[in-house]
Amino acid sequence: MVFMCKPFSCRSIFQVNPPDVVPSDQVEVDFSDVFGPLPVQPPNEVSNGVSEDLINGHPVITHNQSNSTVGLSALKLHNLTIDDTEYSKKLAEWVINESIKEYQVLSSIGVGEPSVQLDGISMKVRTVGLEDFEVMKLVGKGGFGKVFQVRKKDTSEIYAMKVIRKDKIIEKNHVEYIKAERDILAKIDHPFIVKLRYSFQSLEKLYLVMDFINGGHLVFHLHRHGLFREDLARIYAAEIVSAVCHLHENGIIHRDLKPENILLDSEGHTILTDFGLAKKFENSTRSNTICGTVEYMSPEIILGKGHDQATDWWSVGVLLFEMLTGKPPFTYRNREKVQRKIVKDKLKLPSFLSSEAHSLLKGLLQKDPSRRLGRDAIMKHKWFKAINWKKVEARALRPSFRPEVAGKHCVDNFDKRWTEKPLSDSPVSSPRKSGNFNFFQGFNFVRAEGWVLSP
């Protein structure tokens, strides 16, 4: 379950400089080692039309008592006023997500719903889970789960729900990857990066609820058009560069940039998705993990020499090359051959590209990461001379191509092999049987933007 608060038409909450309100004796206590995991009732019957892929193993939790004073229930925030600031949003998000942590503790000991007190008024939070969503269409499938188009019942908002099987994550030893994906999506707020709205879990599944972007994957339109003109590719590339810069500023490398992980929204802007291989990093550290999609891997990843954020700029170069020519620069039927070509072969650039495009691609696709173009050199490059970067971040540069989208429910830009597929059952084994249920503690999240606590 995840907590959210009732929508409020006013602005955000909390002063910029709230008083120090947390009593010194307020300590977050984790009782899971003493009292065990969440109590589970027999699961509800599967309702008609809802995939068991989504709800299999979802626990029923009973609240025995409300207005508890454990953890945040005793928190008093005095004299807080309405103020629309970035700080207030972050503070609101912190309060709500601390309530989520409290709920996990209270549920484990059979105590009821948490609440927050504002000026002595008890503010209850409302639980949000799978039962709050109506499943509409399957829109994608991967190795660990599926992506569904869903409708939130109380607001009729349309979202994308990524459903991930815990047993597969544990079996492949990818627990840290999925936890990192959730943490990164919860942290990031950028116009060209998909927003995580909620995350929660059942006994057997993890759920990430994000904005539904229905203009189709970049690869879908690239295959349809063959290649993009330089003026269109320039706007796409500028938006991708903006998103990657934001990730790097926040200590994150994506490591899987490719057309399949970029969506177009209804206005034609790019949206970066799928952070399953993303990693937090520090400037002085390097990662030695060999990961990614082979055609987009940098030479340093393939060689296992350690990599940092420069590996993302190589992938941006591959993306740009593919947008301008219709295919990646190094391809072959055999994976090992592709890797050898990436490491050893000279870059071949088609003559129909401009000299400025040649220059940028050569700078991005430098095999030596120390000589590869970085953020400042890329943004100041002559190929981007016509780009106003402030207008890019304000979404003020409109791409010449807009996908055909017939409303927010439209799924026409997704592969019909998924959208026309019936919602089928998929029984899975329970990680709890292997003693691994606690791997995903702290997974639940709600984005506070647009929500406030209500009495």
Summarize the structure.
This protein has 455 residues and is of the alpha+beta class.
Give an overview in words.
- The chain has 455 residues and is an alpha+beta fold.
- Helix 7 packs antiparallel against helix 9 (310-325) and helix 9 packs antiparallel against helix 11.
- Strand 3 and strand 4 (121-124) form a beta hairpin.
- It has 14 helices and 15 strands.
- The strands form five sheets. It has a six-stranded antiparallel sheet. Strands 2-3-4 form a three-stranded mixed sheet, with no helix packed on it. The chain has a two-stranded antiparallel sheet with strand order 1-5.
- The longest helix is centred in the N-terminal third of the chain and has 23 residues, at 86-108.
- Helices cover 29% and strands 15% of the residues.
- Residues 3-49, 55-83, 105-118 and 450-455 have low confidence and may be disordered.
- The chain folds into two domains: 1-214 and 407-455, Phosphorylase Kinase, domain 1, CATH 3.30.200.20; 218-393, Transferase(Phosphotransferase), domain 1 (Orthogonal Bundle), CATH 1.10.510.10.
Mean pLDDT: 77
Overall outline: globular
Q: Calculate the terminal CA-CA distance, rounded to whole Å.
A: 20 Å
Order of helices and strands: EHHEHEEEEEEHHEEHHEEEEHHHHHHHE
Q: What attributes characterize this protein structure?
A:
alpha+beta, Transferase(Phosphotransferase), domain 1, 15% strand, Phosphorylase Kinase, domain 1, 15 strands, 14 helices, 455 residues, ATP-binding, 6-stranded antiparallel β-sheet
